Amino acid sequence: MGQPQQSEGTEGEGGKPPLRVGMVGYAFMGAAHSQGWRTAGRVFDLPRRPELAVICGRDAAAVRAAADRHGWAAAETDWRALIARDDVDLVDICTPGDSHAEIAVAALAAGKHVLCEKPLANTVEEASAMVTAAEEAYERGQLSMAGFNYRRLPATALARNMVAEGRLGRLRHVRATYLQDWLVDPEFPLNWRLRREQAGSGSLGDLGSHVVDLAQYLAGERLAGVSALTETFVRERPLPVGATSGLSAGATAGTGQVTVDDAALFTARFPSGALATFEATRYATGRKNALRIELNGERGSLAFDLERLNELEYHDGTEPATHAGFRRILVTEPDHPYLDAWWPPGHGLGYEHTFVHQARDLVHALAEGRRPEPSFADGLQVQRVLAAVEESAEKNSVYTPIAV
Question: Is the pTM of this model over 0.85?
Answer without folding.
Answer: yes
